[in-house]
Amino acid sequence: MRIDPTELGAERIYRLMTGIVVPRPIAWVTSLSRSGVLNLAPFSAFTFVSQKPPMLAISVGRKGADYKDTAHNILDTEEYVIHIADTPLMNAVHDSSIEHPPEISEVEQLGLETLDCERIKVRRLAAAPVAMECRFRQCLEFGEARSRLIVGEVVMFHIRDGLVTNGKVETAALDPIARIGGPRYARLGEIVTLNTVFQTPKSKD
After folding, report:
1. Among 74, 77, 101, 185, which residue has the fewest nearby CB atoms (within 10 Å)?
2. Antiparallel, parallel or unpaired: β 124-125 and 114-115
3. pLDDT for 92-128, tens place per residue?
4. Which segment of the chain is annotated as a signal peptide (predicted)?
5. Dihedral of CA 36/107/60/98: which sign?
6. Domain range 5-186, CATH architecture
């Protein structure tokens, strides 16, 4: 089967790519508007781009002709929180993707409890097993739709007790959810451990 992307519109290409690039981790992001509304939205175009300092990237598209509230908020306030959600939060993650006007808080709509952060003003979700306080560092725009790749530095990690052993996250205990094509999500399933291979140390510690 051959598919020429030049013959397809953005929506059809999006459907193809989100079915091919799977499973995708989900960045569940709280951000604060200039007027003080706490926004919440999930983004599955998400990865880390640096380990020292720790930096994360999310791709934020548009809703219609305008950018999504998360992009506006991050560029306005330069602070936000990226959470990793587990299976019990799957419905809340999905429901937080419903588009609301900027003056509506998805956090309040879903009745989610929040906690103060230590280094930034944006509040974090109490129920999430991982929350990472972030400060904005860079924004790049790509493609005809001008999707914004937003890079931020993690200035504080909050990880649920019992999830870290010898400096490593116990992934099975974290039980993260992932996004696949359409309104569908996935869990980890079987974890296969292979032999450790030599890698040049990234630093002295």
Report:
1. 101
2. antiparallel
3. 999 999 999 999 999 999 999 999 999 999 999 999 9
4. none
5. negative
6. Roll (2.30)
Strand partners, 157: 132
Nearest partner of 152 among 130, 176, 133, 169, judged by Cα? 133
- Got the DSSP string for 104-163? S-HHHHHT--EE--SSSSS-EETT-SEEEEEEEEEEEEETTTTEEEEEEEEEEEEE-TTS
H/E stretch holding 20? helix 10-20
- For residue 42, give the nearest of 16, 12, 18, 66 by alpha carbon: 18
Report how far residue 140's alpha carbon sits from residue 62's, in angstroms, rounded to the nearest whole number.
14
Q: Where are the domains of the chain?
A: 5-186
pLDDT at 176 over 90: yes
Backbone angles phi, psi at 153, to 5 degrees: -95, 130
